[in-house]
Amino acid sequence: MIKTQSLNEIASVWLERFHSGAWTQQDQAELDGWLAESSAHRAAYWRLEDAWSNASRLTALRQPMRQSAPPRRILPILARAAAVVALVGALGVAGTKYFAAPDTRVYTTGLGGRETLALSDGSRIELNTNSVLRIAAKANSRTAWLDKGEAYFEIKHDAAHPFVVFAAGQRITDLGTKFLIRQKRDRVEVALIEGSARVENDSNSARSAVLKPGEIAVATADKLSVAHSAMAELANELSWRQGQLVFTETTLADAVAEFNRYNSTTLVVTDPAVARMKINGTFPTSGAQMFARVSQHILQLRIAKRGNEIIISR
Amino acid sequence: MTERTPGTDFDGADSRRVGKGVTASQAKAWFVREVLPLEAMLMRFLAKNWRNKSDLEDFRQEIYAQVLGAAEVNIPDQTKPFVFSVARNLLIDRFRKEHIVPIEAVAELDTLRVPSDEPGPERSVISRDLLRRLQLGIESLPPRCREAVVLKRIEGLSRREISQRMDITEQTVSDHVANGMRVLADVLYGEAPELGSGS
To answer: What ipTM describes this predicted complex?
Structure first.
């Protein structure tokens, strides 16, 4: 006998589809139709929906990391006064460790989160916003995977046991090092602050480079290039460790993209002329709204709020 | 919860009245707030009075359908007695239909009181218990299913992203996540059970 799909199963298929990331208006219409068919459908669907929504509290089950960053103070927002608003502090969502395959530990930060991880060998890793890092679970392991986002590494060098990080098909091997890895949509950037590190394509080790301090490697699936950068600029790249974003002659497009990495309020710039405008300043990573107000006053732009978005235009 | 609710058009309080004086959104809110927290108690009640465990899910669904259908016309004053009277009637009906219990047993069931030694429907009861139940639920999932659920619910990845991350088809991701949704609802509302089934 073929067991027909139970109502509960059908409801769960709808709910999964709704959350799949590919939900269309057509789907919504179909779901509405299905829900309208009977109270049994509605009850089954709402029951699963409510449970799934409650399951967001699973985040609270994540265990705290071995060492969290020191508490930071949130200073009151000084708002619109000047383009240079140096503020310390960011609202950090606790960095966390949660259920994972038994052979790795997973550490993750939410939007706007930032966390420090201290390894038993004395190395430190700082995880930036919206990032996922895995570390092999066995004792004294020296292998990590940056699955998403950005992390700063200060690695205690051990020539016999090099520390290796995998990120989007690249293998970064520490040769005594402080370095920063950031995943972008189609590439990985590795900036070397101190010491030395090797970047190589995981499937083609011929494509590799040994970085010196101040160098930034940009690796895509099929290309690896190395650029030199002033240490001052590199310091800006690391300002998130203090909860700041530092802009130096940064285009509005780039600045907005930076803020959107940290905040659920999305800044939107569609006008290309506005996108090319440049701005200087230091902002808290959580200061998307402040940034919008500042650009309004300094660059004479207009801002409009629409739902979760702030539109910046002329 | 800031999440967008599916069925928004349906329940979006847009004055669509499903019964006299009750909007769909009111009925839904009542169902979620007052009926779901009774589920554990309800399932125990059913399990005690019905041998075949594989029928219980159908019973639950039938009871919810009736209860919600009634509430969409008129929200009952007292949720717990109402839900359990529906459950009782359903059981009696099934007993009679299947001729499986002597009529005395039905009579006895008729007089069954709503369990009074159990916590009421307060949402806080569920909250207190919530994390533990969720934890049990998530741990009870098969490893790959658990991984998919965690990526979905905690990291908010899309079906496609999970498929790439786990190197499985999108259909398999869907199956894992849908399965996880059912298991989580069961552990959250129902009897926190012999975990490990995962449907």
So the answer is: 0.77
